[in-house]
């Protein structure tokens, strides 16, 4: 796939930004991150271990900030651009973001 491909239109139907009551699970967020990261890094998603630091795969600041922005847009949340440095694995990012989704859900109810 082209590294410059626009992925913003590839939103799952249960995203927060669509105003639904259900939120993506941690596993769904992990898969979303893995799929996008594989596009940016031109790797098969199957070769990415969600428990390994993303730096192992050559994640640079430009891709990390772009990925964080896309994730924030998908979920309708504000996320720190340093997200992938504060939470160095896909698994830890997804766990943190899932907790933020839960907080947003409780505020919106």
Quick summary:
This protein has 4 helices and no strands. It has 109 residues and is mainly alpha-helical.
Describe the protein's topology.
Elements: H1 26-41, H2 61-75, H3 83-86, H4 90-108
Helix pairs in contact: 1-4
* C-alpha-based Rg, rounded: 13 Å
Q: What is the H level of CATH, i.e. the homologous superfamily?
A: ACP-like
CATH fold description: Non-ribosomal Peptide Synthetase Peptidyl Carrier Protein, Chain A
Quick one: overall form?
globular
Q: Quickly count the helices.
A: 4
Structural class: mainly alpha
The ordered string of helix (H) and strand (E) elements is HHHH
Total count of domains: 1
For the record, what CATH class applies?
Answer: Mainly Alpha
Termini Cα gap: 40 Å
Helix percent reads 40-55%
- Supply the CATH architecture: Orthogonal Bundle
| Strand segment tally | 0
Major sheet summary line: none
Mean pLDDT: 84
Provide the β-strand percentage band: under 5%
Q: Indicate the low-confidence ranges by residue numbers.
A: 1-18
């Amino acid at each position: 796939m082209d590294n410059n491909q626009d992925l913003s239109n590839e939103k799952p139907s249960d995203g927060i930004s669509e105003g639904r009551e259900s939120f993506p699970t941690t596993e769904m967020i992990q898969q979303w991150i893995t799929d996008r990261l594989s596009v940016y890094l031109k790797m098969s998603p199957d070769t990415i271990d969600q428990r390994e630091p993303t730096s192992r795969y050559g994640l640079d600041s430009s891709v990390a900030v772009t990925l964080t922005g896309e994730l924030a847009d998908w979920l309708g949340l504000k996320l720190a651009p340093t997200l992938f440095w504060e939470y160095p694995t896909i698994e830890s990012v997804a766990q943190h973001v899932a907790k933020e989704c839960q907080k947003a859900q409780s505020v919106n109810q």
